[in-house]
Q: What sequence folds into this?
């Protein structure tokens, strides 16, 4: 039973065909990443799923009563609007203080309740958005370029946090990202989008697919190998796929230290 | 008590200030100042039509403001930017209104009252309209508050929570039309936006949450109305502009105080 499924979805913005005949289904608990060049319809696809866009053709079906948490891309809060973190998390549904605190802690920014949103750093801001999405108790967490504006360690931290959330809550995660190497290796499935679905499958399959290489070149393959160890640690109990950990690699050690939550089988 | 023209003026000013407070905050947050200006200007056409047809100015102004809002929101995005459309609509409606008024004999003086307000001439019927409109706007804002705030932050954030941001935009547009229609008698079409924006801008630096800003805006708006009317009575100055001057003084004070408290 899919949480969300798209069947033959096409969206046109005026003359421009943003999406054409896209099929996609998200199952409970999986991490799906959408990659694609700029203008490939990634955000359009997410907007169809949250109901902001109605496709010209095709169907978007959501499981009955499915709870979706959404982290938008590049949210900026107008400086004329005073807004504390606590108040932000209570939009549009009022939340209890205890729930707000718990969500902030789960997102890795405990104790920020009374700070102004405008006073947060880039990383704190994205985590506040994540905390707000978590308050929905989502079965599906949708993140549109969640690491926009973060440096590399910041991005890696945030992705680590997102994986942690998946481990804690079992929510399915649908993500759009530019950072192919980091994100792809943390995903169960990757969908390569360029108006239509070019190719999809496990990160390894997509990374070696000719369609993917035509879009992104082969340069990211080395990086993919480098970050492979990130691939979903919660699967340590059912190791049917080979993680191929490259323990000799320096970057690997650095990374392990940074993240500090590795449990290698 | 209502027989005293000054008491009626005070009540009218306070009513408009209360209605303008929550809406003024959204006008500031969503940068709708020009939209407000345009809505106010087109009401002059509504006033002219009402006077010609011998109907209530309130309903004429309200109807024209609503029509403009609908036309602008439908035409925007079809090759015209919002401010271009507003500029076309507002100034042509104002011009048509002024020309139309010239065909009506004996209303030239009345028109001045609608451009600059005539709060000291507010009657009991006007008071009923003002407080009715204010109650409607405040109730509407309170009912939609959470959804409006979410839609103001980000339209997609609203969609994801099952809120239609276009519907919330319509709520604001409707409320704006009502406030403009009830405020036209108090401060006049040319100064309505000042009453929306200046108290909200003054409250900004003193606020940490949207709600405190809305309450602060109401307090400053009511204080401006009272101070302006008092000055107007003491020194025989025009009432509407005096209210706006009072609000401007509050703004100057809060901007200074805000900067001071930021520095320390």
A:
């Amino acid at each position: 039973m899919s949480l969300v499924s798209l069947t033959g979805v096409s969206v046109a913005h005026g003359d421009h065909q943003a999406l054409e005949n896209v099929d996609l289904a998200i199952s409970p608990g999986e991490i799906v990443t959408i990659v694609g060049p700029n203008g490939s319809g990634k955000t359009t696809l997410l907007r169809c799923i949250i109901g902001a866009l109605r496709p010209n053709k095709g169907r978007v079906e959501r499981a009955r009563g499915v709870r979706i948490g959404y982290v938008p891309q590049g949210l900026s809060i107008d400086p004329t609007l005073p807004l504390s973190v606590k108040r932000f998390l209570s939009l549009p549904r009022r939340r209890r203080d205890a729930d707000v605190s718990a969500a902030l802690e789960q997102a890795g920014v405990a104790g920020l309740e009374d700070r102004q949103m405008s006073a947060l750093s880039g990383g704190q801001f994205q985590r506040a958005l994540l905390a707000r999405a978590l308050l929905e108790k989502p079965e599906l967490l949708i993140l549109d370029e969640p690491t926009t504006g973060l440096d590399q360690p910041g991005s890696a931290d945030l992705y680590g946090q997102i994986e942690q959330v998946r481990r804690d809550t079992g929510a399915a995660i649908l993500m759009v990202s530019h950072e192919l190497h980091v994100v792809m290796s943390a995903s169960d499935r990757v969908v390569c989008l360029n108006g239509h679905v070019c190719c999809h499958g496990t990160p390894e399959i997509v990374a070696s697919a000719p369609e993917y290489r035509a879009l992104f070149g082969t340069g990211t393959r080395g990086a993919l190998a480098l970050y492979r160890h990130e691939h979903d640690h919660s699967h340590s109990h059912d190791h049917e796929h080979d993680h191929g950990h490259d323990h000799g690699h320096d970057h690997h050690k650095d990374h392990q230290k940074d993240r500090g939550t590795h449990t290698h089988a | 008590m209502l027989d005293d023209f000054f008491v009626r003026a005070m009540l009218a000013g306070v009513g408009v200030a209360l209605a303008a407070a929550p809406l003024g905050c959204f006008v500031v947050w969503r940068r709708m100042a020009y939209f407000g200006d345009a809505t106010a200007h087109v009401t002059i056409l509504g006033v002219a039509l009402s006077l010609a047809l011998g109907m209530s100015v309130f309903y004429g102004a309200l109807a024209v403001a609503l029509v403009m809002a609908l036309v602008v929101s439908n035409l925007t995005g079809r090759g015209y930017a919002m401010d271009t459309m507003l500029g076309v609509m507002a100034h042509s409606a104002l011009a048509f209104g002024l020309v139309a008024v010239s065909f009506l004999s004996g209303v030239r003086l009345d028109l001045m009252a609608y451009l600059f307000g005539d709060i000291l001439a507010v009657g009991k019927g006007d008071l009923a309209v003002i407080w009715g409109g204010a109650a409607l706007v405040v109730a509407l804002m309170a009912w939609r508050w959470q959804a409006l705030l979410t839609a103001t932050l980000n339209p997609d954030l609203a969609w994801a929570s099952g809120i239609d941001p276009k519907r919330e935009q319509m709520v604001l547009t409707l409320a704006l039309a009502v406030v403009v229609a009830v405020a036209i008698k108090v401060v006049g079409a040319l100064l309505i936006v000042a009453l929306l924006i200046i108290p909200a801008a003054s409250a900004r630096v003193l606020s940490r949450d949207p709600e405190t800003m809305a309450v602060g805006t109401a307090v400053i708006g009511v204080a401006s109305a009272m101070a302006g009317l008092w000055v107007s009575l003491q020194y025989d100055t025009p009432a509407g502009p005096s209210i706006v001057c009072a609000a401007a003084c509050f703004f100057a004070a809060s901007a200074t105080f805000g900067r001071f408290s930021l520095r320390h």
Q: What stands out?
A: Chain B touches chain A at residues 28-31, 146-147, 149-150, 152-163, 201, 204, 207-210, 212-213 (CB under 8 Å). The first helix of chain B runs from residue 5 to 29. The CA atoms of residues 47 and 163 of chain B lie 35 Å apart. Chain B has one domain: 5-189.
